[in-house]
Specification:
heterodimer; A: alpha/beta; Rossmann fold; four-stranded antiparallel beta sheet; globular; B: mainly alpha; MetI-like fold; 2 domains; 20 helices; about 80% helix; about 0% strand
Chain lengths: ~210, ~550
């Protein structure tokens, strides 16, 4: 279970406070207007922002003292998940060794990862040489091979067209079931998540506005 | 009805002329002036011929020019790149001031910097004095290649650092979020994120620095120390001023232009940029700041840079403030030189603005009206001014006009003209991108509403480009204020400028007075920047 307790961040122009839980192994959708504070919540959980007060616990472990890379989670953003000058395979490889010195075994894991998201054979391409949907799949594959139990997704499908949005969310859901991941995913158009998300948390003006299961 | 259609077509034609005329006129004027200059020199030289480009003398100059420029470039990049990385990684009080100070270096007159370098590295300079305290003697090491390299690194390492730093800081925030999220160690961040950026930018920066050093004049004339250490530019000056060998001057110029153009074209093929990422620039801190290894490394880099760059800068100020030097304030030469400098720099700045803006305006018009290949022409013409030796232009025009006008009156006309042409590329480079951005953003709207010509310039473009115009005018004028170039050909008792006076005072070993004169020059440049920033760029001082 992911627990967010009294998590606050104060800035001169805005302030947020979050209290919520996301059940283990579930697909929790974060919905609400843009600018409402969904991305801020994800940045706080991932450790890119430091809160002024509050706690973040995952399976009973306090995550705040940990550096972003040491937290038991992976993050996929709306875009710019990949370094534009590295190939898809290299970008995936960074998930296994952030200094990108890969053993033969790790290269095989990368190939496997590409295959699981339907990108087999495209490992040598640069991000600009594949479609936006394929880039997002590559980012998902990297999150997968890092084998972290919590998967945060910040508007992962907002840059895609409608058919691809359904496909991508379906793929995320399928991988969640296969790997037993806990998924927290912000979504711009809640309709996309119907039938996929089993929990829904609405965030407005930096607060948790409502929750649905 | 025909009468109804006429105004429209006339309007389009007018817009066409307003688009093509400024750049066309500027280009035509430049071409005509260069042609007149070459004809003038050929006239006094008695026609072309009799020049052997493989003459050992020419080859030795060429070899030295290439070696010193190559070494200067290497050393400047070797210091500039680590300095940029260290500045990108660190936040400390005074960091912004330091970066601004590095920008000032670009408009510091060469002759002033040379003065500071002599004060530190000369025979009786700080370094030798310091060594003397512990019973050592550094000897005379300054004049020749070492002095030229010290001066070129002093100017160009900060320039390289500034350009590298801009691109390093333009990395999207997403990169640092990814690096932090994945836990990339500092070595990997350098290898996978910073190095590709440095490698991408290096050819362009190297080409710029190489060109500046290859065509270096004032530095090499003052610190070269003799015929063994010459650049083509100095050799051209000497052929014109002392040997009166106009054929040789022309031939050397042809060699210089050909080599520089070759280099520019060759390197522009290299420097292909990848698709720019349009993403928010990093506000997230780089994750490699805390590591002890990078802290140590950055400290060492700052120390080395400080040891090389700070003493000459300090020496300029201290020299300028010496009591002995203030005697120059009573010297009528100082007033004459100050007026002479203004008389050169103000028209030169305006000429540079006219040419640079005209070329940039027409280049944009060509691009927007569907002739992108024509848009390259103004850029090429602007860059010729960068590589063509100013001495040939000045001497050639002098030769062409000397029979038709009072020779003494020609200097005060030709020096501002040539300085203005030399400074035009700065205006072009600064105003061009601003004009292009305003064009791309508003072109469809302007065409839809029928806003064109002067109205478009005043209402749509001016607000977007005034900062760039102010900066371009300031840099062009400052460059002309501080330039010690063609004034070396025309300067004398009656017509002199501040850099020329500094040079003459240095030549007669009146270093204290030279220092005070240099300080007056720096104050004038500072005043000019302040004025132009307040008036044109519209910066409000609180």
């Amino acid at each position: 279970m992911l627990e967010i307790i009294g998590l606050r961040l104060e800035r001169p122009d805005f302030s947020v406070q979050y209290d919520m839980i996301a059940p283990d192994g579930g697909f929790t959708a974060l919905v609400g207007p843009s600018g409402g504070g969904k991305s801020t919540l994800i940045d706080l959980i991932a450790g890119f922002l430091a809160p002024s007060a509050g706690r973040i616990r995952f399976r009973g472990q306090d995550m705040l003292p940990l550096a972003p890379a040491d937290r038991p989670l992976s993050v996929v953003f709306q875009e710019h998940n990949l370094f534009p000058h590295l190939t898809l395979a290299q970008n995936l490889g960074l998930g296994l060794d952030p200094a990108l010195r890969l053993s033969a075994e790790q290269r095989r894991v990368v190939e496997d990862g590409l295959q699981r998201v339907g990108l087999d054979g495209l490992g040598a391409r640069l991000p600009e040489e594949v479609s936006g949907g394929q880039r997002q799949r590559a980012a998902l594959a990297r999150a997968l091979i890092r084998r972290r139990p919590l998967l945060l997704l910040d508007e992962p499908v907002s840059a895609l067209d409608q058919a691809m949005r359904r496909d991508m969310l379906g793929l995320i859901d399928q991988l969640r079931r296969e790997e037993g991941l806990t998924v927290l995913c912000s979504i711009h158009t809640p309709d996309d998540a119907i039938g996929i998300a089993d929990h829904q948390v609405e965030i407005r003006e930096g607060r948790v506005f409502s929750t649905k299961s | 009805m025909a009468a109804g259609a006429r105004p429209v077509s006339m309007g389009w034609r007018r817009w066409g002329i307003a688009g093509w005329l400024p750049g066309g006129a500027a280009a035509l004027a430049l071409v005509a002036l260069y042609a007149l200059a070459v004809a003038g020199l050929l006239g006094v030289a008695g026609g072309p011929g009799g020049f052997d480009p493989f003459d050992p003398y020419v080859l030795s100059i060429l070899r030295f020019s290439l070696i010193q420029a190559g070494l200067s470039t290497l050393l400047s990049l070797a210091l500039g790149a680590p300095l940029a990385l260290a500045l990108a990684r660190r936040q400390f009080p005074g960091r912004d001031g330091l970066i601004k100070a590095m920008a000032i270096g670009f408009v510091t007159p060469v002759i002033v910097a040379v003065l500071g370098i002599v004060a530190v590295h000369g025979r009786a300079g700080w370094l030798n004095q310091g060594l003397g305290l512990i019973g050592l003697d550094g000897g005379t090491y300054l004049y020749g290649l070492p002095g030229i390299l010290i001066a070129h690194v002093f100017f160009n390492a900060p320039l390289a650092a500034r350009i590298f730093l801009q691109t390093l800081q333009a990395q999207p925030a997403a990169h640092w979020r990814l690096a932090a999220g994945l836990g990339m160690p500092p070595g990997a961040i350098f290898r996978l994120i910073d190095w590709p950026v440095l490698r991408r930018e290096a050819p362009g920066i190297a080409a710029l620095i190489f060109l500046l050093c290859f065509t270096s004049f004032a530095t090499v004339l003052t610190l070269g120390g003799g015929p063994a250490a010459q650049t083509l530019e100095v050799a051209i000056y000497q052929a014109l001023a002392f040997e009166l060998d106009f054929q040789r001057a022309l031939a050397l110029s042809a060699v210089q232009i050909a080599l520089c153009l070759l280099l520019t074209l060759g390197l522009s093929a290299f420097g292909t940029r990848p698709a720019e990422i349009d993403a928010p620039v990093a506000e997230i801190a780089r994750p490699d700041r805390a590591a002890p290894a990078t802290r140590l490394l950055d400290g060492v880099v700052f120390l080395i840079a400080a040891v090389i760059l700070l003493p000459p800068a300090l020496a300029i100020l201290l020299r300028g403030l010496s009591l002995q030097g203030f005697s120059i304030l009573a010297d009528p030469n100082l007033l004459r030189a100050t007026l002479g400098s203004l008389q050169v720099a103000i028209p030169a700045g305006l000429i540079a603005l006219l040419i640079g803006f005209g070329l940039a305006w027409t280049a944009r018009h060509a691009r927007l009206s569907g002739h992108p290949h024509l848009a390259r022409l103004p850029a090429l013409i602007a860059s010729i001014a960068l590589v063509a030796p100013p001495f040939v232009l000045a001497a050639g025009l002098f030769a062409a006009l000397v029979g038709k006008a009072n020779p003494l009156a020609l200097g005060p006309v030709l020096v501002p003209l040539v300085n203005g042409i030399m400074a035009a590329p700065f205006v072009f480079r600064l105003v061009g991108p601003a004009l292009d951005r305003a064009g791309e953003r508003h072109d469809r709207l302007c065409r839809g509403l029928g806003i064109r010509g002067l109205a478009r310039l005043i209402w749509i473009d001016w607000p977007a480009i005034r900062r760039a115009v102010g900066m371009g005018l300031a840099i062009a004028t400052a460059f002309s204020l501080g330039d010690f170039g063609v004034i070396a050909l025309f300067g004398g008792q009656d017509f002199t400028t501040l850099p020329h006076l500094v040079y003459r005072l240095m030549g007669s070993y009146r270093l204290a007075e030279a220092g005070s004169t240099a300080l007056v020059l720096l104050l004038l440049i500072g005043l000019l920047f302040w004025l132009l920033e307040t008036l044109i760029a519209g910066r409000r001082h609180a």
